[in-house]
Amino acid sequence: MLLSKGVASSLRGACDRRKVTLLKGRLSLLSLAAFFFCLNACANAAPLAKNIILFIGDGMGPGQLGCLLNHKRLTNKGQTNIEKFLREGTSGLVLTSPLDGFVTDSAAAGTAIACGRKTLPGMIGVDCQGRKLESILQRAKKLGKSTGLISTIRVTDATPASFGAHIHSRYLQRKIANQLVELEIDVLLSGGARYFTPEGTNLKDTYPDLYIGDSYFLKSNRRDKRDLIAEAREKGYTTVLSGPSFRSNDYGHVDKLLGLFASDALPYRIDVINKKLDIPSLKEMTDQALKVLAKNKDGFFLMVEGAKIDWACHANDAATLLHEMEEFDQALASGLDFVKDRDDTMLIMMADHETGGFGFSYKKLKRKAATYPLVTQERYEEYLDHLNKKTVMQIERQTASFAEILQEAGDSKEKLVALVEKHLNIKLSPQAARRIMLTDEGTGRQKIDDFSDFYPYRRNVRPALLARALAHRTGVVWSTGTHTSTPIVIIAKGPKEEKFKGVLHHVDVAKNMFSLFE
Prior knowledge:
This protein has 518 residues and is of the alpha/beta class. It has helices at residues 5-45, 62-75, 81-88, 106-115, 136-142, 158-164, 173-183, 203-206, 228-234, 243-247, 269-275, 282-293, 308-314, 318-339, 389-392, 402-409, 413-424, 430-437, 461-474, 506-516, and strands spanning 51-57, 90-95, 146-151, 187-190, 238-240, 257-260, 300-306, 345-351, 354-355, 359-360, 363-364, 371-373, 379-381, 384-385, 476-477, 483-484, 488-493, 502-505.
């Protein structure tokens, strides 16, 4: 059929207008898509977390968590903060192997957590060739955030050092102290004053309220005249070197805070309580650190270490472990309070490794087996000692650490027997006391007859022998005086917390933290 020219012209006009309309529609859709793409890109470019608070329980494996959780249940003391965190957050398991090894130390573990790279045991913030690695704390500083490190040992020890220093050996703590101050980390709270004071300084004379502990720690450990405390003041730090001074102030108004409360490591919490020492708790330090750091509108990074969990496990001292776990749990409450009703803060709790292979264990009966009638008219016969509440609660009644007991006992077997009865309400036999005090005539060191290769640290041999002597009364067993490869628990709450779910390695934890600041 043929159309007239007028009709054909009208149809062509209508088609052209339709094309223009469709083109405009397509352009509008493209513009809208581009708008949302840019919006999404901008959202992804912004940091996912303003703040990161990282709690590390040094040496805290599943057994150590079980020690605390079971104790709370047995004593009806309510739920722990760790339980609350498990319920609210996302949890996973973390493998802890170092480079070219299977069982890590705190330096390699700390470096992997802080920097996202495996390294060799003993190395701090460097790769296996000694090249510097950027830590999550240093990334935070680059972004204008405030930073802080807290520990219950020394701020120069392996875990905190891994976040702020770069050195091939964790034992070079004078150089680590130099680097921490030079980096100007905003909050440093811990022990270790003898690494910050000039050579020859008598710390008791200079800082009368400073905790000294053993007389070995009375003087500075430095080999030069640098006074890092004075240098810190020049850099704008408020410095405090005693528990009473720390407690009498509120540091929310300061921008930089250096608090050193012991010449070397802070004392065990069980001894702080028993001896009524005025030493800030981990929670008190965490609370003050958060006041200082939270003022920064750009955010902050804070690492809080329950370091003496590890030391208690090296010493095979279950009661002391329990007190350190309780202190760590109380400090975690500060982190949970801070993140409540916030969506800009990532809170993480984890460990660097497990120490000691701790556990309660059932054992052979040393008494006549008991029998119980059943409703089936049969009798149940007890054939192994599965421990009862009274046995397990023995560790709660201990009032001093093994380290404190043995230091006070010196080389006296009689004193040791008396102190064990005083602090544990257990009668230690003279034969057991003699074995604990026995020294090798060739080396002058304490002897351990089994698993000796797994007790390389001299200071931990006697505590381990004491633990073995008491095991039949406490039900506590230990597999080693060093670290194990046991996977550790991680809990995370905050932006992209699902990244911390499943089975990870330390380096994955670090990479996930870095991604939150990108």
